Known about the structure:
Elements: H1 19-45, E1 51-54, E2 58-60, E3 65-70, E4 74-76, E5 81-83, E6 90-97, E7 100-103, E8 108-109, E9 122-130, E10 133-136, E11 148-152, E12 155-160, E13 163-166, E14 171-175, E15 178-183, E16 193-209, E17 212-230, E18 233-235, H2 240-245, H3 260-276, H4 282-290, E19 295-297, H5 298-337, E20 361-362, E21 373-376, E22 379-383, H6 384-398, H7 404-412, H8 424-440, E23 442-453, E24 456-465, E25 467-472, E26 475-483, E27 486-490, E28 493-500, E29 510-513
Parallel strand pairs: 1-3, 2-5, 3-6, 4-7, 5-8, 6-9, 7-10, 8-11, 9-12, 10-13, 11-14, 12-15, 14-16, 15-16, 16-17, 17-18, 17-23, 20-21, 23-24, 23-25, 24-26, 25-27, 26-28, 27-29
Antiparallel strand pairs: 19-22, 21-22
Helix pairs in contact: 3-7, 5-6, 5-8
Amino acid sequence: AYSQDSNSEENKPLPLNEEEDYEARKKSITDNINKAVEDIKKKEEKIVYDRKVEGTSVFSEGNESVSGFYNKPIDSTPYLFALHSLRPPVNNLKLININNIASNTEVFSTRWGKNGQYGTGVNNLIYIENSGNITGKGIGVERNQPAIHLISGNDFYLKNSGNITSKQDKSLIKTENNLILENEGSKNKDSARILDKINFRGDNFFLSNTGYSLFDEVDFVGYKNFTFSNKGTILSYMTLDDFIKAGKGRYRYQAPKPDSDTEEKYKKYLEDFYKNHPPKDKDVYIATEYGGAKYVPYETYENIKKEYQKYRRKIRDEEYEKRHKEYLEKLKELQEASDGPVDFPREGMPEGETEETHSITLCRPGKECEGDFIYRENGTFVNTNILYEMYKKLHRVSLKPKTVDEFIKEGNGAYINIKPIPTLKTEKDYNSYKRDREFRGTPIRTTNFYGENSGKIPERLSLSFDNGYFINSGSIGILEVNADKGLVVNRGTASLDINYYDDETMDRLLEVDLKNSNVLKYFYHSEYSG
Length: 530
C-alpha cells in the first residue's frame, strides 16, 4: 500500500493477507484526519478577529479577520456573509451556525470580491461549524445563488452536523491547500443530515463521516491527496418526503376524513342537536304566524320559498366549491404528468335548483274546496300546512351545528390517518432522480488516495485515483474503482467494479485482495477476454 509521505516507512507495500497491517493502515487514516483537525483548530485559536458579529448578516470590505455567529432564525433576501463587490480578500473568516438560516441570494459568499468568482476570497483560513440548517433559496436565471460560494487561499475547515442545501444551484467550497470536512451527520438513522449540491475542491482533502448522512449531488476532488474515512452511513438520495420538502414535488390533495368511530359519534351528535332544537308545534306556528287561518295568500309562500332557497343555495355553493377544488387538483395532476391536452370530465358536481310546479285547485264561487294550492276569484292561496312544512325545512337549514372539523378539533374524534400520495409527476420525477443518484452515488477523485470504510454506503462509491489504497471492512452497494496502481482490499460486502490502466512493463499495477470475498467472475470482451 501507499502512504502520503513518500519518505516514510509506511510507504513500503503491504504484504497481502497481513490483516494486522490493514488494521494499522485504517488506524493511520483516522489518526491523520484527527491530526489535521487538531492542527487546524490550533491555528484558528491563534487568530485575533477584528470584528465579531452575532445574530445578523456580516458584510466585509476585506483586509480583516471577521467572525459571525448565527444563533437565531434568519430568512433573508440579501447575504448572511458577503465580501463586498471588488473588495480585497478577507484575511480569516469564522462562521458558526446553530439555527435555521436562509437567503434568496447566497447565504455565504465571496463571489463578487476583487479576485472574481473563481478567485480567492479569504487569504488564510475559512472555519465553519454548522449544526443547524443553511438553505440557499435562490432560483435566478443567472444560476449563481447556491447556499455557499467560498474560496480560501490556504485552508478550509467545515464541521457539519446539520443540513446545507440549495434550491437550484451548486455550492462551491474550495481551497488551495488543506480542505477538512468533519461530517458528523445525525445520530438518528431516520433523519440523515443532508449535504446537497456542493462541489468540494482542495489540494489535500480530509473527509471523515461518522453519522447518518446524505450526500446528494456532492462531488469531492482532492487535487493532490485525499484521506477518507467512513464509520457512519452515507446515502446518495433523498427519501420521497424530503424530495417534496425540498420543493421538488408535491403530494396529492386528499380531503381529510373522520374515522368510523368519529362518524358514529358525529351522527349521534347531530341527532341530539336537532332533537334539542325542534321547530315550533304546527298548531302554535299557524296560530302565531297566520292567526290560525287554513289558507293565506300565495305571496306568503313565495317569500318563504325565497328565504329557504337562499339557505339551500349557500349549502349547494359550499358543496360546489369543495367538489370544484377536488376537480381542479385532479386536473392539475393529470396536466403535470401529461405531455399533451387532458380530457377530464366533471363528475359528481351538485345540481342546480329545479323549478317547482304545483297543481292548483280551482274553487267555484260560494263553494268550499280543498287543496295545497287553491284559486278563488280574489286570488291564489296556499294551505298553511304547506307553509308549516316549509318552515320546518327552513328552521333546520338555519340551525348551525358544529361541522365535523369543529367537532374533531374540540377533541371529540379523529381523522383517518391518510398516507400521503405523491402526484403522478412527482412520482415520475422522483423515480428519475433516484435512478440517477443510484448510478452516480458518491464520487471521489484525486491523485493519491488513502481510504477506509467500516460503515455503510448502500449505493455507489466511485473512486478515481492514480495511486493509493482503499480498505473496505463495512458494506458498500457498488464499489467502483478507476486507478492506475495501488491496492484495494475487501473484507466487507460490496459489488465490485474495478478498472485499472495496465501496461506491459507492469509499472502500473493495481492489486486487489478479495480474501473471504464471494466473487462472481465478469467477462469483458474488446480485443481480448479476461
